[in-house]
Amino acid sequence: DTAVSQTPKYLVTQMGNDKSIKCEQNLGHDTMYWYKQDSKKFLKIMFSYNNKELIINETVPNRFSPKSPDKAHLNLHINSLELGDSAVYFCASSYGTPGNTGELFFGEGSRLTVL
Amino acid sequence: GESVGLHLPTLSVQEGDNSIINCAYSNSASDYFIWYKQESGKGPQFIIDIRSNMDKRQGQRVTVLLNKTVKHLSLQIAATQPGDSAVYFCAENGSNYKLTFGKGTLLTVNP
Fold first, then answer.
1. pLDDT band at residue B108, thresholds of 50, 70 and 90?
2. How far is B37 from chain A (nearest CA, A)?
3. CB-CB: which of B43, B93, B100 is closest to A106?
4. Contact B21/B9 with Cβ under 8 angstroms?
């Protein structure tokens, strides 16, 4: 009965590789997000989708490509991984558009380590 | 411990004491604010929210105060318990229609 689930929870990979993180929510929400949390715990929004449409794209390098096959899923694909991509990536969802964001429900996070 | 190297603002309290965590926000157009709690190894969890037409809102053991004049938000936790130990974030919903998170405060509750 997990609300927002992300896989994998941990990911260790070499520089230059391509990897994906998947996210699914069973809350019936129509807005989903990717946030990045750095080593200082700072949480920064990367992307937001509303009903499969990209709403927010926060000057993230184009090596990062989100994909929303339906409103319950938002995946994040990262090409040519760099050391600075090491972080915890959180998926979140909410009911309503970003203009009326309301409470965000977060997944447990995916810790990416790039060696 | 987890706080090493983090350089987060920290607050250390004794079990049973009241805690006050402060947050300054930047966007005077923000109309909605949320406090989140993040335990080690987990995602942020909603605690309480407040809209800009209010200055105080109470939940169970928690109270949020909003001072729009000085753009300040605070979270008060009554009778703090060891399970309250976590990083606490304030977040604002500003004119860009996205939830922007503050820096986070590490709360440690000593038994």
1. very high
2. 11
3. B43
4. no
